[in-house]
Records
---
Amino acid sequence: MQEAMNPPSERRAQSRYVPGRISTLVVLLALALISIASVSLVYVGRIAAGVADAQAQGNEDRLFANALHDKKVMMAREQLALARWTKSYRNISQRFSQGYIRKELVDWIWNDYRHDRTSLVGEGGKLLMTAREDKADFAARTLATDDPVAMIVTRAVARFMSNREPMPGGFRQKRISVAQVDAITDFAFATIDGEPALVSAMAVVPDDDEAIAMPDGAPVILVSAKFLRGEFSAELNAQLAFKDFTFDANTGTASAGQSVLEGIDGRLIGAFRWTRAQPGAEIWSVVIPVIGVLAAVLALSAGLIARGIARISTRLEASEARNRQLALHDALTGLANRLHFNQSLDAAVGRLPHLPFAVLACDLDRFKAVNDTYGHAAGDTVIRIVAERLATVVGGAGLVGRPGGDEFLILVTGFTDQPRLRVLTHQIIASVSMPITLDDGAITDVGASIGVAVAPDHGASAAAILASADAALYGAKERGRGIAVFAQHLTQYTTPEQAGGVASNVA
């Protein structure tokens, strides 16, 4: 009533005064907040710069150590496909078939896995065979005790002896899972033929499910070496993405970013070097923009109505996104469902031949045993965890889909060259094979078999490329599971039995 009684000019003055006062208070508050934030950011920046650099260095060192460990384990798994095989044991340890060694073992371990040097060493350090790439030399000789190959063979024999168990008529190697392969493998760094290398050694033994007794004494040891320079360093940095990453055989000059390697004989053989990230130097370039952003946010705080409208729009968009999610994604895992994957595959086919792509067909190994042992709820947990691991490994390189059951399909559009596809399959198999903790605390594990097909080489239509990937997957299962098979190694065979016998695997 009092306001109605005031003259119109007074009421207009009051209406101008109150908003003006509030605006002034808002401006003063914004200036105070900006000043406090600026001083705080400058103070925090000085402290954070040093801490950020130290943390970045620690993170890089941990990443490097983990990536190098992964390369060791993958190298051992590649060896395992040949060393833990009854066919190899009969043709190496029992009768020593040069034809088998040359045509299958040496050819396979070079052409599929790119192991630069391969050796077979018998009891007493007797060198039975050595291969440079795919060229085998059967000139027998006894290795000197200080030879790097002899030294790692001695350790591999001791490791075999500690992992064997008696059986009727002799001994056998203890059963282990693929995830435990480093328990039966010895690793070392050494200079081989003048070149720094990662060396891996394990005993040649029959398959786990074969009742073949091995005699007492040292087994034949399979030794492989990968040179650290070149392809090995490139594949290692594919996981790290370090700047200026290289292997340097000169260890005389130390640098901030390096990991010096000592050979099995105690000598330094070189160092991995890279340019360290320095996030501390970027702190100041972040502080000033943040101050500007804070000022802009405070200046635009009056736009509450627009924010309200934006929230309504966001809710509508979120509702539409949920509907699209339900229509195109698997309810259990959130991965692309069959419809979504087929649409993406058809789109990729439409871009051929200018933009090739690859399809990976992936089935889980031992999944039925999980369902039978722990129930379907546990099986659902395994599927969800495997889906998360696949999505993490594939990342932005492609699309992961689950058509149903324990089947997964991966559409890779980021690259189609075999080295990077091989690295991707290695990472998938390693990730899926890691132990899984169920809701009740029980721990289980599954494996993965993968078939790889590249378009348009193995099909220019969706149906054709899927058929090629499925055929390669069948070859992986026939070969023993837990491996990846490329389709091109199957095209020359007419029956699954023929393909399964010699198909190339990359796991």
---
Amino acid sequence: MRVCVVGVGALGRHHARILGGLPNVELVAVADPNEVQGRAVAEACGCDWTRDYRTLLSKVDAASVVVPTSFHLAVAGEFLRAGVPVLVEKPLAGNVADGTKLVELASEKNLTLQVGHIERFNPAFECLQQNCGSVKYIRAERTSPYPFRSTDIGVVHDLMIHDIELVLELAGELPTSVEAFGVSLVGGHEDSVQARLKFPGGCVADITANRVCPTVSRQLQVWSDRGCAIADLQQRKVSVFSPGSPLKAGLLPFYLAQVPGADIPQLKADVFGQFIQHQEFEGGESDALTAELSEFVNAVSGTAAPRVSGNRGLEALQVAEHVVECVRSHQWDGTADGRVGPMALLENVVESRDYSRRAA
């Protein structure tokens, strides 16, 4: 299968490296307007470099598009119109309208359109999913220092959309209600957002995303009828808490403690171990990006359907757009524009300062 990678920056270069090493795959070329970066990746992968991805439209059987979100429609759309299946990095597009166009194009051409929601391939998430029953509550947290990339989008489309897609998978349906609050901390777009999703089946999900944080965290906590499962997606570890045989038999510590002569210290010691069982799992060392790209190759060859199709990516994008709309409409300090005091002062300072001279 002849493939290309468009955009070989921080993430795209890994797409090229992995695709170039997959069996039955020929990495024909990488495309990137940055000649130094493009040539370096091409040389490392043993393929050609081109500045213009359009020169590859008739030369490949599949394309991996890893460009800034604002270019997803233009680049992925050109390949789809040329009859080339596409893996496009998350989010599917910068807005629902653009994402819908990509999904419709893929449908019209009967082509594979996969969205790069890599966390679906995280072994810790797969382990957590196996240990969940009927999901009742989900809490997701994703934080990182300011990346100084993906600045064409805010934290909702940059980070939170990972967890939105995971939540949709766990809940198994679309939300009926979206509430959100957020702030811009360093300018440009929203940087810290808290959202709550409510689902028709009764599940509630709280999602936190912050890309101006001194620490990195990727946590997912799920409560279901089988207990509580907590996944550290960064460390790939999963903790599962489930009812022990005494609880299943109706022997509840609250009532046992009321019995005259109850051994309270022993009851305390037995809460975790007897009444509540605790299991620890390691997520494994498999590479999520390799699994994602391998699935794309299999989908193009017709041997498997992608777990994150264009339609699923569009659903996540729809929810993300609702979150952003809530953030924009929420007057967090009670004023008409929701931005006064130090935040407004900071904006004025930034607007009046000539950073071009400082750089010179």
---
Amino acid sequence: MWERAVPSTTEWMSTADAAKALGITPRTLYRFIDHGDLPAYRFGRVIRLKASDVEEFVEANRVQPGELKHLYPDGADKDDAGDQQ
């Protein structure tokens, strides 16, 4: 008898749905998949992603406080500017 390899609770997303959920273009999604950043599965000609993998990808790419200081000039943020008054 055939044994179920995939739990029935797995929620699958199309590439279009995953790209929309992430707020990116399908091309960017395919780049993440191709680079190994986001797991995907091919079923014949169709590519699907597990919703749980997409959620893990989002959490793994969370920006931590202080990681973006290189994006504003002289390392000054609005809190520092308020202290100068």
---
Amino acid sequence: MNTIDKKQSLGGFEKYLPLWIPLCMAIGVLLSLYTTLGEQIEALAIGGISIPIGICLFFMMYPAVLNLKGSELRKLKDNPKPILLTLFSNWIIAPLVGFVLAKMFLSDHDELFVAVILLSASPCTAMVLVWGSMADGNQEQNVVNTSLNTITIMIFYAPLVALLTGIQNIEIDRWGLAISVLVFIGLPILAGLLTRKIVIPMKGQAWFDETYRPVLGKFSIISLLTTLIVLFALNGNTILGSPEYLLLISIPLLLGFVIVVGINIAMTKLFRLKYREAAVTVIIGSSSHFEIAIATAIAAYGVGSVAALGTTMGLFWEIPIMLGLVYLARYLGRKNFW
């Protein structure tokens, strides 16, 4: 049987994410017009960090880092080529493409420029596990890559964002950027590692994988949608007053997806990867970690900022594009492209 004939799918709620996302955006805008929710949420802050947003972002990140397995990284030596290609795409190709497109289209809009950099410099660690499963890709490679991405974000993300924004002469709080990474990535990693050490010995690996993680996955999506409602409730006036912001940032984001996906498909063909490895390489290499991008934008510019609004547009476009990429990968597989 062809390796891609076995279909895998999202759950009933998750598969409608492309509908829930614009719906939550619309709800947020309506709340900004007819309620004082935005002002009430903005008042709940400590040191410029919104407490409700911080809680939502933690539960967006925490389920993802439950996938982190140090033991998986030892498997790198078994088949390093797909892993290395993915890392090259995540940390070289995607950030450079994002920078060039942001410079072409957003040179006069600093916060939108930063939003594109935050998105393009952040490799995904969570949803790609779902996309890889749907494409019937090599899930062992997927786990290794996501585990490695979780670690490399801690090391490379803040310096890379600082470098690319510095080239454009955009002032950004570098210490704040580093602290954001430690808080929004470091704390969930610590919580995830402690959870594995405590829960698995008590309940067993099977219960952890089949019950605990799926339930937390639901919390992650609910937190994501709640964050969207809050962000658009806070940014409703900005959106209605300057809708061109959404169009402006959508141009480099969409072009960036097309270019990076094209490069990744070409690389996997050039290096003669098989279907299951190629599919995961393209999917992970073309996705972004919108959770950390949103969190960093909020920490740097505030919950009601244009930068925070810009990073949410990365999420708005990524979900349907990644779903489309799954079907494209399966199509190419049926045509024996790889």
